[in-house]
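Q: Got a minute? One more chain.
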Amino acid sequence: MSLLEVEDLQTYFFTSDGIVRAVDGVSFEVETGESLGLVGESGAGKSVAVKSLMGLIREPGRIVNGSIKYDGQELTDLSEQELRRDIRGNEISIIFQDAMSALNPVFTVGEQIEEVIVENTDRSPTEARERAIELLDDVGIPDPAQRIDEYPHQYSGGMQQRAMIAMALACDPRLIIADEPTTALDVTIQAGILELFDEIQEKYETSMVYVTHDLGVVREVCDRVAVMYLGRVVESAPYEELYRNPKHPYTQSLINSVVTPDETLDELDPIGGTMPSAVSPPSGCRFRTRCSVEFGECSQLTPPLYDVGDEETHTTACLRYDDGVEREEPALHESTTSEPAVVEEQTDD
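A: Always. Here it is, folded:
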């Protein structure tokens, strides 16, 4: 049994412009000790997917369908109180993109870490402070016994993110979600944070879900990758396999758009077009409006995830692989991918 199993997750937002199908039939698993990267452009649904895992979706959004199982327990059945008491922090922690916004400016860094420990464990305030100093030391904060009493604005951007990592580790969670944690940092600071994630995962034996749009980041920290596009997973594979042998046209385009230091290019190869609206996504394959190998059937059929690897660890949602082998034209068949959930728009009483 996997540590985390997400199946057919659908999270919608009910707005005045219509129903935003931000996450629309997403499935993935995370094994114990594994690091999974969720990759895609802005608007792909990555952050909504991971916030759904922790029950952090607020109005006008809600989970309308799907299963989220953590260590065999169905999280969608839990109340807000049960999630706060049993899951958040204790079992699953999240590190947000903007550490400065996530940290409370009127409390010291130490007070914020200590509060998490006291509220979620049986440690005394004195023990919580000692543990907070240990955590700050683990994440590379210099002079942690002194810096623990400083306020967030007295930390640099990189140190703020390290403090957020310390807070995420405060209750020894088994799964850490990192939602674009290096996006706001410069390249040199990014490298240090990514190295820290590797060290933390090894020392604390945690599993990780790493949300990013940067394939270079995935290369540093992830064992396996799930590529998302417009609310759906379009390809999933071990990292090395994905880079060596990408199957989905979107994944291929993402990789081709990355510039590496050892390459000399006459021009960049960006992905053409823009991502359609999640309010009115294209019929059939959602990438077809930007795809260079679109067939007529791509507008009629919604591709499921086909097994394309020898050990069923590589899947792709492209009709060209309907029997696991690439073909020039997809065979006509019925789609097995979930259709949008039938939901009623919410109205004010």
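A: Confidence is low (pLDDT under 50) at residues 332-336.
Q: Perfect, thanks.
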